[in-house]
Design goal:
- There is one protein chain.
- The protein has about 200 residues and is mainly β.
- It has a domain at about 25-160: Pnp Oxidase, Chain A.
- The chain has four helices and 14 strands.
- The protein has helices at about 15-20, 70-80, 90-95, 110; strands at about 25, 25-30, 35-40, 45-50, 55-60, 80-85, 115-120, 125, 130-145, 150-160, 165, 170, 180, 185-190.
- It has a seven-stranded antiparallel beta sheet with strand order 3-2-6-9-10-5-4, covered by helices on one side.
- Strand 11 (about 165) and strand 12 form a beta hairpin.
- It is globular, with a radius of gyration of 17 Å.
């Protein structure tokens, strides 16, 4: 099968998200200028550079109570900071609860039953029990082609790792089984690893 996205695929559901998988989930926490904490998962997320460490995520939608965007992007524009929280398998239901389309005055930490902890380097909350959290300062917000598509890029200025995830000096993902996004309504968790040695 071949299709041009501009002409449609003719399938019951869009296959694009199922093709580009698995995708790590950036559970993005931010804070409004009025001090309201926000937490939302984004599967258009990844690391982009080592030195200095940098990450990105993309916001691709709108909310009725925001001006053509979502709470996360509004907050980040106002404050210039955000935190990426890693989602473990055991937090899948809390992550899903934070997807709810809630009013901007609602704190998703409270809605999802999560304890918030203050970040160390930025004025933002993080998920206290997350396996890891990356405190970020915004470097760029890029408007992408299409309506309400924005890429947020940030430099990581602080890193939190849960002590039980460190095994013999290695951040061991099998200790918490990171959640990844697949297509449609599907997810997976990393439970098995294998290594390949680079040539040379």
């Amino acid at each position: 099968m071949f299709y041009r996205p501009s002409e449609g695929h003719g399938l019951p559901h869009n296959p694009f998200n199922a093709i580009v998988t698995p995708r790590p989930i950036g559970w993005i926490s931010s804070r409004s200028k009025d001090g309201v904490n926000n937490l939302a998962p984004y599967s258009f997320f990844n690391a982009t550079a080592y030195v200095p460490p940098q990450v990105m995520f993309c916001s691709t939608g709108t909310k009725p109570d925001q001006d053509g965007t979502k709470d996360s992007l509004t907050n980040i524009r106002e404050t210039g900071v955000f935190c990426v929280n890693v989602v473990e398998y055991e937090m899948r239901d809390a992550m899903n609860a934070s997807c709810a389309n809630l009013a901007k005055e609602v704190d998703e930490f409270a809605h999802a039953g999560l304890e918030a902890a203050e970040c160390s380097e930025i004025a933002c909350a993080r998920v206290a029990a997350a396996p890891a959290a990356l405190e970020c300062q915004v470097t760029q917000i890029v408007e992408l082609k299409g309506e309400t598509n924005y890429m947020v890029m940030g430099e990581v200025v602080g890193v939190h790792m849960r002590d039980d995830c460190l095994v013999d000096g290695i951040f061991d993902v099998t200790t918490y089984q990171p959640l990844s996004r697949l297509g449609y309504m599907d997810y997976t968790a990393v439970r098995e690893l294998f290594s390949l040695k680079r040539p040379g």
